[in-house]
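hi! just following up on the protien thing from before. the input was this:
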Amino acid sequence: MAIVGSTAHASRPVLEAALAAEGAALVTLDGAPVDVVVHLPEPVVGDIALLDTDEAAWDAAAEAPARAFLATVQAAHPSLAATRGRLVVVLPRAVLTGSAGLVAATTGWGAVLALARSAGRRWAAGRIRVTTVLHHGGADDTAVTDGVVLLARSSTRFDGAILEVGGGPS
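and the predicted 3d structure came back as:
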């Protein structure tokens, strides 16, 4: 299993511990077969009003997450194809609803979600499953971890699913 993307994601330490408890060995994407790849986006730092968003802020909040996920998809495919594995993407639920102070970020997350869904459709014939965990604002790390662990289990058949975890506001 490989966890890629943000090393600053709040759920990462809890997720790593839970996956280790499940018996998962954490590895890097170096071309070796991997059965599960978990993608964590970089956290957003602060709200930026739409009219105050300059090109640099847009690139950092909207373009960078999409490019990072594209790199994950491209790097993960050979490993996942060898194992008929699963790609799990973790995103905030705001990707579906938008957020007044996070317009650029929700746009970037939307691109990630669209790419995940498209990759899932394209890779389904090769038995590679792509699923997404959406967490509500304020969802604790355990909710995110439980969702990822559920989807990472090889017996779970949620092809193309979007699993929402953690109650509360978006």
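Residues 2-44+59-165 form a domain with the Rossmann fold fold (CATH 3.40.50.720).
The two ends are 29 Å apart (CA to CA).
cheers
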